[in-house]
Recover the amino acids of this structure.
């Protein structure tokens, strides 16, 4: 990696723009980056790579080279090189010296100091991971497989952008993809190409929206439909119509948890009886960085951290606590971190894994939804039935030495009791001033 960065720096010193563009992409591939950011400022232009969800600065170059590099990248993506006033999007296929085929999605954005470039790297030869490889533990795995084995209904995944929702859905489609079924997808854009699927990309500029694509797709005799995202009431109405008429529908939606997805559907004026009749399961997920195997070590468990972990453990389902061997309150806990080494770029982390919250629509939950019960009541019932919250799954992975407490709590909320303690602590600090 250091050699390739040195080559990039030499190309910058030589002002060799074609070589700069080539070495930037090669460096990003070598470091397993998902995105390249080229960002101009007043006195310099920096290049950053997103690795395991975190941006890492690589090099800087003088602004005098920027317009030429932007033009070079635009030519690669068949964009207009004489248009710098509006954003542009493009795509280019790249083959590495090792023979690996990649798709580069290009995006330009005008800024006060010039055009910013973002390139997303997608490995076309990358295999779709199995559900087990995503970090989904056996209990949640059974629920998901039951949901997709149903002849009809809706499976929803929820989480912020970049939390792996599309990958989870494609892992499900990989299981379902046989010659006996007709599977179609409606996406924006088509991120992963899979043989055996009929994949279509929406174009809102010509009114080809998710809702229109889904409604039209129902005339294509599908058995299974994957919709990239449910953004509006029209799309969810058509998805429900499809589920009620014997189709299996997989889609994503933006909410904070599995239970809040039900609230979101109710806010979209979906009748409660239709939610209970069509939704099979809801998956909430986040991605956290994994501790590097080469430099992992046990660290001291400070009292504040131990209190946070034990507070989360207390809210777990008793069966989950038993599986983890945490029935006794005074059982010792161990946590780990990464010291940083050459293998992980001195970050202490290498790769990412998902943490999951999977809600299965049971008869008890359906009754509570029909009674217009609060989200808290729904969550308590789901936990009583065996659901792990995002925090619970994250704590399990912390104690297993897979990730760190900092990673988990950067993407999940604390338990109600812990949050209340933190709030009281802050109030106490203010009153003591």
């Amino acid at each position: 990696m250091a050699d390739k960065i040195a080559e990039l720096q030499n190309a910058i010193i030589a002002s060799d723009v074609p070589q700069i563009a080539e070495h930037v992409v090669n460096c990003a591939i070598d470091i397993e980056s998902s995105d390249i950011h080229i960002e101009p400022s007043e006195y310099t232009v920096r290049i950053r790579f997103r690795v395991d969800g975190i941006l890492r600065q690589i090099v800087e170059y003088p602004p005098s080279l920027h317009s030429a590099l932007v033009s070079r990248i635009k030519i690669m993506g068949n964009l207009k090189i004489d248009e710098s006033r509006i954003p542009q999007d493009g795509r280019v296929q790249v083959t590495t010296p090792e023979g690996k085929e990649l798709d580069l999605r290009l995006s330009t954005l005008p800024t006060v100091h010039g055009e910013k470039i973002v390139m997303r790297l997608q490995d076309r030869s990358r295999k779709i991971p199995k559900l087990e490889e995503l970090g989904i533990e056996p209990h949640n795995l059974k629920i998901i497989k039951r949901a997709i084995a149903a002849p009809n209904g809706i499976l929803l995944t929820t989480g912020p952008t970049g939390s792996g929702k599309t990958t989870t859905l494609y892992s499900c489609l990989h299981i379902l993809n046989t010659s006996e079924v007709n599977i179609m997808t409606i996406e924006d854009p088509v991120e992963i190409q899979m043989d055996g699927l009929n994949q279509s990309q929406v174009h809102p500029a010509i009114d080809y929206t998710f809702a229109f694509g889904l409604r039209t797709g129902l005339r294509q005799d599908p058995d299974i439909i994957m919709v990239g995202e449910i953004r509006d009431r029209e799309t969810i109405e058509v998805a429900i119509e499809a589920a009620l008429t014997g189709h299996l529908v997989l889609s994503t939606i933006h909410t904070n948890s599995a239970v809040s997805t039900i609230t979101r559907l109710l806010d979209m004026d979906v009748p409660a009886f239709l939610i209970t009749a069509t939704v099979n399961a809801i998956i909430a997920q986040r991605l956290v960085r994994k501790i590097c195997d080469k430099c992992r070590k046990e660290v001291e468990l400070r009292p504040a951290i131990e209190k946070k972990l034990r507070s989360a453990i207390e809210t777990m389902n008793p069966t989950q606590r038993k599986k983890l061997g945490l029935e006794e309150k005074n059982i010792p806990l161990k946590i780990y971190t990464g010291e940083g080494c050459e293998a992980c770029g001195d970050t202490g982390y290498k790769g990412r894994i998902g943490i999951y919250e999977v809600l299965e629509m049971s008869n008890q939950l359906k009754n509570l939804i029909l009674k217009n019960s609060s989200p808290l009541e729904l969550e308590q019932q789901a936990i009583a039935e065996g659901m792990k919250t995002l925090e619970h799954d994250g704590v399990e992975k912390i104690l297993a030495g897979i990730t760190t407490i900092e990673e988990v709590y950067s993407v999940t909320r604390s338990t109600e009791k812990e949050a209340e303690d933190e709030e009281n602590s802050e109030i106490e600090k203010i009153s003591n001033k």
The two ends are 50 Å apart (CA to CA).
